[in-house]
Amino acid sequence: MKRSGRVGIARVIIHEKEYLAALRPLGDLICLSTMNLSDEVVSVSDVEEAVEGVKPGERELKSAEKLITSMAESFNPKRYHDEYRDCVKKVVEKKAAAEGAVVQPPADKEKQPQEARAANLMAALEASLARAKGQSKRRKTG
Q: How far apart are CA 33 and CA 12, in angstroms?
């Protein structure tokens, strides 16, 4: 990706929601950045129309400034954590302690779909590349 100067566009599902994402090189790594889908983007003109003619008074502006100043502090990333994950972890631990952990037996390899048998990222990437080449050839000949 670095050599070609291109980024990849992907669809990913995170917590039951589909996101558009960009895959781009970051040093020797690949970085995934979520993006907005077209129906999630609001044009600037729509926003400008919605607030047209609305002018806050001097009193409101001073109050807003005071509020912002009173709440300002140095950013400390350690103050923020994934509360949802913590909650899920507590529920899982409570359930495991009450009932004992339930482990699903390994599935028969022959019954797994082809995609699930990809042994590693490289194999998955090679398979994806082969599919992309096949689609490209079909577009050219079709």
A: 10
